[in-house]
Amino acid sequence: MNVKFIDTSVMLNLLEVPHMCEDVQKVKEQWKRTLEAGDILIMPAATIIETGNHIAHIANGNKRREIAGRFGEFLRKTANGEAPWQLYGVKNTNEELLYLADNIEEFATREIGIGDMSIVYAYHHYIEETPAVGSIMIWSMDSHLQGYRKENVSMIRRRGK
Prior knowledge:
Helix content: 55-70%
Radius of gyration: 16 Å
Number of helices: 7
Number of strands: 5
Strand order of the largest sheet: 3-2-1-4-5
Mean pLDDT: 89
Distance between the termini: 21 Å
């Protein structure tokens, strides 16, 4: 089983948000291969929030409305269990807030915002609570998130326990 956490940068390319999507063809090809492979896709709550914020700042009102409508369909399908991904990390727990508080200085010095920190937290939390995963990664076009990838996660967890 392969798991991919969808980062905002991927969603912005899938939606073709102006000035935020320089890798549309690459992402759409990866998207097609991912769906064909039957990988498990995870939509972190932070990705939804960040994507919505970027859409709200599209200068062209007609384009903003068009893309917001498509994103609304993605959200509707997610809520109805019809999307090719699963929603994850909806509720902020005290544990997550403490993680963010304990790590915000380090991440901020690397120019990584709280949304990406939340995605990293969800990625690690998913690994801890899921008993068997072949590989897991954060699927991102952002270099600072591309290094989050583990292979044979179930084997790593068994050896570590």
